[in-house]
Amino acid sequence: MFFKPTPLALIITTILISAPSFAKSSFGGIIYTDVYSIKKDSPNNSGGVASNAQPDADNYQGIKLELPNTSRLRAAWSNEDNLGMYIEFGFGGASGATSVGLRQGYGTYQINDRWQVLAGHTTTPLSPLFPHQLLGNNAPASASDSPVSVGGSHNTGKGYGDLDSGRHPQVRLTYILPSQRGAIALALLDPNQGKALELPSKYTTKPARETTLPRVDLGAALNLGTVKLFPSASYQQQSYNGVQQGSDDNVTTWATSLGVQTAQGPFELSAEYNIGENWRQAGYSLGNSAATLGSGAVTVAKGTSAIQTTESQSYWIDLGLRMSSGKTSSVLHVIYGQMTSQTSLQQAKHQSDMMGVSWPIELPWIIKGLTIRPEVFIYDEGTSEQSGTKTSYGKEVLGGVQMQYTF
After folding, report:
1. pLDDT value at residue 326
2. Segments of the chain with pLDDT less than 70
3. Helix (H, G, I), strand (E, B), or coil: what is residue 77?
4. Which pLDDT value is given to residue 245?
5. What are 41's strand-pairing partners?
6. Any domain includes 5
7. Cα–Cα nearest to 351, from 158, 153, 160
8. In the Cβ-directed half-sphere of 68, how many Cα atoms lie within 13 Å?
9. For labelling alongside 351, which of 20, 73, 280, 333 has CA 20 to 30 A away?
10. Are 339 and 354 in contact (CB under 8 A)?
């Protein structure tokens, strides 16, 4: 029987067979399948019809069966010289899409028992925790999938409480604390990523980003026995070339985060709080909520252009109950999260919330590596308030089951 190998299969096969005989290598992956019902009540979706013109015209309800693009194949390799490599490709998408793309790819050098250097494309030490919410990564933003509509793309609560560093090219130095007490890591990133600053229409030529100082992410994982703490911070300053003389030409982004994990008996708790400014300019992965879309710096033309700073805060709480029966084990998670963004001068404020239940159940007695995850979440897509006028982007109810095959 003959078959045509895919480019992804050729890449990973080449990695594995090209390793020297003394190298250690491993290969694995995860395949997700989402089956869910989605109902959106979006009376004022950006780009939609006016709520008083055609009642329910922006509402949407449907059933989805998808292979979300969080599915992945991964390969790891290391040798006796303390060199390592990790590569991970994602595949899948909405409406039957089968696109393939690099999720992570990096190399490591273990200098000694305490120090490690990493270079490549991956997440950073910023805000490493996330709630157990996975269903609906490729959910539609609206009935028409308008790119300016809020909502959709539900993954680990991003935009509804979770701040995600995103995956970026970087150089990282990690110090491993003695006695398994944790680690401290410092990462340097390209600062010319993220959403470019929107400048007034008087600029016929859009000023270019010419930042020379890197984005800096610093984080730690501290093992304090039954409690684990995850403090972290991020700083970036973008500079723009070609801005009118006398106008602001720098945008500063910063974020601080504190996460906690603990467990007692059958109960487990994880939570995280984040605060900062101008998050959209840094390339953080923030989802597509109203609070996300309002989390960037804004310019206002007053003779010259002034930059308005936007402050964002987010938090989430995940309370879990561990259960088991025979070979079946599960954790029932009850989750709440919220994100707010407020612009300094215009006093524009955005808020988005989520609340729901996720219940991953491992079923090794059926198939080793099989997990099913029923989930039901209510997403308040958000409200925007400016000069006393409130706009609601409606609510969304998403419920279904995610099947996960791990190998």
Report:
1. 85
2. 1-22, 42-59, 141-152, 198-207, 242-248, 300-305, 345-347, 383, 386-388
3. strand
4. 62
5. 395
6. no
7. 160
8. 24
9. 333
10. no
Q: Which residue range is the domain that position 348 belongs to?
A: 23-406
Residues 101, 43 contacting (CB under 8 angstroms) = no
Residue count of the chain: 407
Specify the number of domains making up the chain.
1
pLDDT of residue 283: 87
* CB-CB contact of 248 with 308 (8 Å): no
**Alpha carbon of 130 to those of 65, 158, 283, 359: distances in Å?**
24, 9, 18, 15
Task: Write out the two tokens for 289.
Answer: 């909520």
Residue 170 lies in a domain: yes
Q: What is the CATH number of the domain that holds 387?
A: 2.40.160.10
18 found inside a domain: no
Distance in angstroms (rounded) separating the CA atoms of residues 221 and 260: 10
Whether residue 312 is contained in a domain is answered as: yes
Residues 352/345, Cβ–Cβ less than 8 Å = no
- Extract the tokens encoding 228: 């684990």
How far is 143 from 116, CA to CA, in rounded Å? 48
In the three-class reduction of DSSP (H, G, I as helix; E, B as strand; rest coil), residue 95 is classed as helix
* CA gap 334, 361 in Å, rounded: 15
Contact indicator for 87, 103 with CB cutoff of 8 Å: no
pLDDT of residue 146: 36
pLDDT for position 295: 87
